[in-house]
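FORM 12-B: Structure-to-Sequence Request
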């Protein structure tokens, strides 16, 4: 996973987008001086600033290859396997949404969500969760939930939708299909929004 961006890559990415330094500052929320220091190859740039730049360029469909390459983002599919597959997914979620906040939509949220509750709050990440009707195991605040009728609830398979990505967690939790695609994200978000609007608001328990 790309964790750094060089000054040369930053300049090249701006050129591909036709952005000025002021444009990048506005889109990333960083001070113009920070971007100028990076592009002059100064080394005392905070990791959070570099992360904000990576996320900004990612949203603009720019990918970085190693410490030299820059390219337009292409759709890709990643397979996460093994006992730590879910942990890898959540690492990607927190890296993608980071401390700048964002939203994650989860269908069939399960008990494993409890392990990440504090990090979601610490990173200012909002969440909306679809669970099965009458399920009162609220790991998150109740207002984060909607209930799907039992006849349409897909038990076993969880879906995570966040910032240009969609992840499908299969039955045994050791295989997760992670799709990097704005089109897939838009389609699944539209489906989630429809289900959210038609789902039941959990009753008082």
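FORM 12-B RESPONSE
SEQUENCE OUT:
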């Amino acid at each position: 996973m790309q964790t750094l961006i060089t000054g040369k890559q930053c300049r090249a990415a701006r050129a591909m987008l036709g952005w000025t330094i002021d444009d990048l500052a506005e889109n990333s929320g960083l001070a113009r001086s920070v971007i100028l220091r990076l592009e002059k190859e100064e080394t005392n740039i905070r990791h959070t600033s570099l992360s904000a730049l990576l996320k900004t360029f990612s949203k603009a469909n720019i990918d970085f290859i190693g410490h030299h390459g820059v390219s337009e983002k292409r759709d890709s599919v990643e397979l996460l396997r093994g006992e730590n597959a879910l942990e890898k997914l959540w690492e990607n979620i927190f890296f993608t949404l980071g401390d700048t906040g964002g939203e994650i939509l989860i269908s069939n949220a399960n008990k494993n969500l409890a392990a990440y509750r504090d990090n979601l709050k610490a990173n200012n990440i909002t969440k909306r969760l679809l669970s099965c009707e009458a399920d009162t195991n609220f790991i998150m605040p109740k207002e984060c939930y909607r209930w799907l009728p039992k006849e349409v609830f897909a038990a076993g398979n969880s879906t995570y939708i966040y910032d240009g990505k969609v992840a499908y967690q299969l039955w045994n939790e050791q295989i997760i299909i992670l799709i990097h695609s704005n089109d897939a994200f838009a389609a699944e978000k539209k489906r989630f929004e429809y289900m959210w609007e038609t789902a039941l608001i959990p009753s008082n328990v």
